[in-house]
Design a protein that fits this description.
single chain, about 400 residues, alpha/beta, Rossmann fold, formyl-coa transferase, domain 3, 2 domains, three-stranded antiparallel sheet, 11 strands, about 35% helix, about 15% strand
Length: about 400
């Protein structure tokens, strides 16, 4: 049994944010009907990485990941016939997911201001870069713009050189993934609330707001007025010895901010003489640049001939927040991921069988399951549109 098995969702989205939102719901059993442009399909079908056959149709690894367990219907909702077909589908779905720029929903007849009158039981989730009321010059922003407008450009890496350009975040679509997660949580909560209220709602998700909410407490202090709003990237630096260090077989990341971290590190390193000169509370009250530099220098020398997994395991047993920096190959071989069954194999009709990431949480009675690969373009058009009650 899956948690959302009885629910039907219409996905109008054509980007990573909306498709990821739909995927999170479909993997928990919701029947997600993906609407795609005839002959073209979603733009994510043309984004890599691609499968063994290169950039041939139906070989996008990105699309395959984002659209597991969904159905694909070719329908141009901007045409007269497509709009009529959409109107027939809407009374039979519980929710709609969209990630087009502000105004697009209104153009196809789903005016947010009139949803309650026209479709009182429908939940509509719109995921955009900056929200529905964004100014015109911000309505078509890419994820890299949203990333840097959220504060993360200053935070990644912390304490970066102000003279150099800020770095992009991890991956290509961090704001979209976070916006999609936010949307899925809101849709699920709204569907649960609807069991009693019997009413729908319009959900507005701003990727920029979602990503900012994940940022460091420094942003919260600035918003609250407890800290000056600053364009200085150093405002996000905790000024501790945290960082990424070379090991014999890769890299590790360490974070330290409390006396317990320092005590654990002293045990890990064998309580060398240079550490004995540090006050126990120096990370909290006496964190000087000179001490930070010395710790980083000594750590680098100690770690350079260690195996990253071995040192990470030893450190964590002592309460030190030190972890291995994993490659994709490392993650596939991870004993923890294997134990948690994080990767699941699916056979795609064009790309063949591959291992897909699932979800980072386990639900015993109603687990997320990858039961079907991403659909071929229009694979379910006839069946969905011909049904009297789709």
């Amino acid at each position: 049994m899956s948690a959302l098995r009885s629910l039907k969702i219409l996905e109008l989205a054509e980007g990573v944010a909306g498709e990821y939102c739909g995927k999170l719901l479909s993997d928990f059993g919701a029947d997600v009907i993906k609407i795609e442009k005839p002959g073209e399909g979603s733009p994510t079908r043309r984004l890599g990485p691609f499968g063994p056959r290169g950039d041939a149709p139906e070989t996008s690894g990105l699309f395959a990941y984002l659209n597991t367990n969904k159905s694909s219907v070719e329908l141009d909702v901007t045409s007269k016939a497509g709009a009529a077909a959409l109107l027939k589908l809407l009374p039979h779905v519980d929710a709609v997911i969209d990630d087009h720029p502000p105004g697009w929903l209104r153009e196809i007849g789903l005016n947010p201001e009139k949803l309650e009158d026209k479709y009182p039981g429908l939940i509509v989730c719109s995921i955009t870069a900056y929200g529905q009321d964004a100014p015109e010059d911000s309505q078509h922003a890419e994820d890299i713009n949203v990333m840097h407008a959220s504060g993360w450009g200053f935070h990644t890496p912390s304490g970066a050189d102000n003279a150099r350009a800020p770095l992009n975040g991890p991956g290509r679509f961090l704001p979209s993934y976070e916006g999609g997660l936010e949307g899925a949580l809101c849709v699920a909560a709204s569907l649960y609330e609807k069991l009693e209220s019997k009413r729908g709602r319009f959900i507005e998700v701003s990727k920029q707001a979602a990503l900012t909410s994940r940022c460091d407490y420094v942003v919260g202090q600035m918003i609250a007025g407890d800290m000056d709003v600053s364009q200085d990237r150093r405002a996000f630096d905790l000024f501790g010895p945290a960082g990424i260090f070379h090991t014999r077989d890769g890299f590790v990341y360490i974070f330290m901010s409390a006396p317990a971290h320092w005590q654990g590190l002293r045990q890990l390193l064998g309580d060398p003489e240079w550490m004995q000169a540090f006050p126990e509370d120096w990370l909290e009250k006496q964190c000087t640049p000179q001490r930070v530099a010395l710790v980083r220098e000594m750590l680098a020398g100690w770690l350079k001939d260690k195996a990253k997994d071995d040192v990470a395991e030893a450190a964590q047993k002592l309460g030190v927040t030190l972890v291995a920096v994993n490659t994709a190959k490392d993650m596939l071989a991870s004993t923890q991921f294997t134990f948690r069954e994080f990767f699941a194999s699916i056979a795609h009709p064009v790309m063949g069988e591959a291992r897909y990431p699932t979800v980072p949480y386990k639900m015993s009675a109603t687990p997320a399951k990858l039961e079907r690969p991403a659909p071929l373009l229009g694979q379910h058009t006839d069946g969905v549109l011909a049904a009297r009650e789709p």
